[in-house]
Amino acid sequence: MSPSPANSLIRLDTRWVRAGELSTGGLSPADFEGLREASAKAHRELSRTERFGFFTLADPATPAWRESAKAAKAAWKKNFTDFVILGIGGSALGAKTLQQALAPETIPGAPKPGKVRVRILDNVDPGTLLPVLNALDPKKTLVNVVSKSGTTVETAAQFLLLAKKFRAALGKKWKDHFVLTTDPEKGELRRLAREENVLTLDVPPNVGGRYSVLSAVGLFPAAILGIDGKKILAGAASMKERCGAENLLQNPAYFFAAAHVLLAKKGGNVNVLFPYSEKLEFLARWFCQLWGESLGKKKGSERIGLTPTVALGTTDQHSQLQLYLDGPRDKVITTLSVESHGTDAAIPASLPGAKESGVNFLYGKKLGALFDAERDATKAALARNGVSLLDLRIPAISAHSLGELFFFFEVATAFAGLLLEIDPLDQPAVEEGKRLAAALLGKKDGEEDARALTPYRSPDPKFVL
Ligand code: PA5
Predict the structure, then answer these.
(1) Is 149's C-beta closer than 6 angstroms to any atom of ligand 1?
(2) Confidence band for 145, pLDDT divided at 50, 70 and 90
């Protein structure tokens, strides 16, 4: 459908959202035509890169990669064995995606452990956080604190706990074990970095948390994980080239956005990203945060939002698929297909009485062929039953394809927000949650909020069964 540059690897199969192809429903040419004006306006708006700063990050020559690679090189010289990232939401999910997809050997306890163990801590549950923090050896650990605002309380609390531990163990040298990633001017982290002279990497002011994976937020962890950030950025750049097309029928990210917006109007407002690759489960979680936080907004008295969710192939075929096939037609499903699995094995016929077995058709087949057959059968069943289905296909999981996918979803999300006439870059409800939690913890000027929350904090025995 779209003329794609030779080095862009993603293909978006759009057949099964089109009227006339699905057994029921689908989108007609008139549906897309109806978006023509809104789409042209959104395209113009997206070219304002001072607002949509993430566009400028999709370039292998950005200083973000140079600086991240340099900081990582300096860190390697110190022979750290453990690397810890503190952050939450957009400040953690990109790194988690990269680790799971491209550097699984760095996950503590991995079957083939690598030289460095990388933990990405995005919660403050005492039961899980404290055992990890307590086990760290400050001498051998590098900590990357990531917070665009520099004021997120979960990240601040994690940082304060570790800074105390490292100070006690290392004295003034504690700072050599920290890299802070934050806004170049504003926030507590920046102030602290200036006062204490801690190495700091910038998040551009016009790039918000969930759009920041191609900045130092994702690139410094990438460098530490041993991933070539230049390749991620080259992938993003090739997708950016394709996303320059104004015609939404030729632009895969615009098409993805438009199809979801149009199908939502017909009742399909639950959006499932269904990767057929365990290595892409976090990519799907990263997408959920991006899509949900960007598109769930109040517009006057109207409430707008497309609800993202994750299903994992083949695991969720034995869980969610029943609902997708026979339940309400409120889903739009995007399968994420990977052509090459990188490794494979034949399934042996090793059980006694193998010939009579009910699964003897499996013997000698490749595990990858089984996985692919499960995926293709699921897609066919969905399409045949009239469920709106898109398929995103990549040849293999690589730094390049991850870069393309990141940029594809960022453009699609921003474009969908503009079609819906909401601001895809803000998050007022998340900010409100942050403000109320701070008030409950005794933040100055938070007394009124704290008082207003009192009736909600403990159950009224009258209603408790
Ligand atoms: O996308 C967003 O803006 C949020 O999800 C943030 O990433 C998250 O709240 C963390 O914020 P910060 O990076 O300021 O600590």
Answers:
(1) yes
(2) very high
